[in-house]
Automatic annotation (TrEMBL):
Gene3D superfamilies documented for this protein: 3.10.450.50
The SnoaL-like domain, residue ranges: 5-97
Entry protein name: Nuclear transport factor 2 family protein
InterPro entries documented for this protein: NTF2-like_dom_sf, SnoaL-like
Source organism of the structure: Agaribacillus aureus
């Protein structure tokens, strides 16, 4: 599983998203929603290259099991964009079958802010 996740990050580092180690029935879930199918995922990346490519990754934590893994990392694109991410990976037949990605994609609504949090 460790090698499979390493391949995933290596392909992104190289900008080679057409050869990601994902199954035909790949499913990716993130705060943006769920994309089902390898073709749909690759097509989405192709249409939005500016938002998917050009990242560097700083890995903070990794947990590996036989057919699953969790990686916490910071992705940086350019000088002024960074995203702190935790992703769960699930494998089947030596390919990534499913990814569940967790990250914050926007401002916290005023009614959800915790008062005086930054002062504690």
């Amino acid at each position: 599983m460790r090698e499979l996740v390493k391949q995933w990050f290596d392909k992104w580092d190289q900008g080679d998203f057409h050869h990601l180690p994902i199954s035909d029935n790949f499913k990716h879930t993130s705060p943006f929603g769920t994309i089902e199918g390898k073709k749909a995922y690759i097509d989405l990346v192709q249409e939005n290259k500016d938002k998917f490519l050009g990242y560097t990754f700083e890995i903070h934590d990794e947990i590996y099991e036989n057919d699953s893994a969790c990686v916490r990392y910071t992705a940086r694109q350019g000088e002024d964009f960074k995203l702190d991410v935790s992703e769960w990976y699930y494998a089947e037949d030596n390919l990534i079958r499913n990814i569940m990605a967790y990250y914050h994609i926007g401002e916290i609504r005023e009614e959800r802010k915790i008062k005086n949090y930054e002062n504690k």
